[in-house]
Structure to design on (424 residues):
């Protein structure tokens, strides 16, 4: 394809050189004349291992050209990638979208004069809603009819220092579009990744990029906070973290990385509080660790808000133990949720396949005794319990509850705090 890349910065330069190597004819446009002059000479505008060799070879072969003239380049393009900078707005911390706005104002002029439709993808990191609420809005207000273009968002996952390898050998190709038919022109970008392509909504693709960077930042901060605690205790933080990452079942895996209900049980709450106390005793600043219990409590409140918003009073809660197939109710978030519902005067029934069916001891018994109301609202017959309820609240990732809800929910409202029913 004839591909136009707008922006000769980090993403634009690497993407342009790589796509040219893959056989596309690439034009890179940037308003910075110095960057354009370097590219025309086959020189890299940034420092990235291997990039200058690629640029030199592709410019020499005629597969890659550079220009400051967006209008001329866009008229001849089959597909446009918008890779301009979106730096932090110093006033409020939001993304500065002025470059994106300018680009789409210029593209609107091009589209008004084109006879064939143009595929346009934003690859710049932008807040969710930008593609439709900013880019599409500009085109529409400029009088460009929707049959003149197709919009998408394609996040890039390039790490400085390994960007070329990341582009050539990615773990997946994410394509954000409003409908699957819109995906067709963009799939031609990476036919080599047909088995790794994920077509998703535009907003999901937009948010993914920002979330991934926040996740990477979270890992850095977590490891550094562990390091500071370790130093204060005279422990090797490096060895602790090296041992942690050896476990790919729970620690370095998809386990726990799904939006759902709050954590509970005998281990996580206790050990988080214990670690936080160590930071306090040793005067270690660890804001991330200190925020975990607070954020967990907010997740319980978030579930309560979802129930309250339905404005219905008869509630059936499925799941009392903090985890399916156990009777462990120690610090179960369901206990706190139920207590708040009862305190607000809701008519609540609770079912659990295991909890309270066996003799309880120690902390497990104490948890129930501290929530004495639980035994009064616990029910054994699910079919009977659901007959007069208005809202079903799922707190437990339990296949038996999934099956029950599919068969018996009917026209009742479902509040799925596990975040899994819509995927089944």
């Amino acid at each position: 394809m004839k591909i136009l890349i707008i922006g000769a910065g980090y993403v634009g330069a690497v993407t342009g050189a790589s796509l040219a190597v893959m056989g596309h004819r690439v034009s890179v446009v940037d308003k910075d004349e110095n960057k354009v002059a370097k590219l025309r000479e086959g020189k890299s505008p940034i420092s990235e291992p291997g990039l200058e060799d690629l640029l030199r070879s592709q410019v020499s072969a005629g597969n890659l050209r550079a220009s400051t003239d967006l209008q001329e380049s866009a008229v001849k393009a089959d597909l446009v990638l918008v890779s301009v900078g979106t730096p932090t707005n110093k006033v409020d911390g939001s993304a500065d979208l002025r470059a994106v706005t300018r680009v789409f104002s210029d593209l609107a002029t091009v589209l008004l004069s084109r006879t064939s439709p143009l595929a346009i993808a934003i690859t710049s990191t932008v807040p969710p809603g930008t593609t439709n609420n900013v880019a599409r809005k500009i085109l529409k207000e400029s009088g460009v009819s929707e049959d003149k273009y197709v919009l998408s968002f394609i996040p890039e996952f390039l790490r400085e220092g390994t960007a070329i390898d990341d582009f050539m050998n990615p773990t997946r190709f994410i394509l954000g579009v409003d409908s699957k038919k819109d995906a067709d022109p963009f799939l031609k970008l990476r036919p080599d990744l047909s088995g790794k392509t994920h077509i998703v909504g535009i907003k999901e693709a937009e948010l993914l990029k920002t979330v991934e960077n926040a996740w990477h930042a979270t890992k850095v901060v977590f490891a550094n906070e562990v390091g500071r605690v370790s130093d204060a205790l005279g422990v090797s933080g490096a060895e602790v973290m090296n041992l942690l990452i050896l476990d790919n079942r729970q620690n370095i895996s998809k386990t726990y990385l799904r939006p759902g209900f709050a954590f509970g049980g005998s281990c996580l709450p206790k050990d988080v509080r214990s670690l936080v106390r160590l930071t306090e005793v040793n005067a270690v600043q660890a804001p991330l660790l200190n925020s975990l219990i607070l954020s967990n409590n907010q997740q319980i409140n978030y579930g309560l808000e979802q129930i309250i918003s339905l404005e219905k009073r008869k509630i059936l809660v499925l799941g009392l133990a903090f985890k399916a197939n156990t009777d462990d109710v120690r610090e179960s978030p369901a206990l706190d949720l139920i207590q708040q519902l009862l305190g607000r005067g809701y008519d609540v029934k609770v079912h659990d396949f295991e909890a309270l069916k066996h003799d309880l001891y120690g902390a497990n018994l104490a948890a129930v005794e501290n929530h004495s109301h639980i035994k009064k609202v616990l029910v054994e017959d699910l079919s009977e319990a659901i007959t007069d309820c208005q809202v079903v609240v799922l707190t437990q990732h339990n296949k038996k509850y999934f099956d029950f809800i599919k068969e018996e929910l009917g026209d009742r409202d479902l509040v799925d705090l596990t975040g899994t029913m819509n995927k089944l």
Observations:
- The chain has a mean pLDDT of 94.
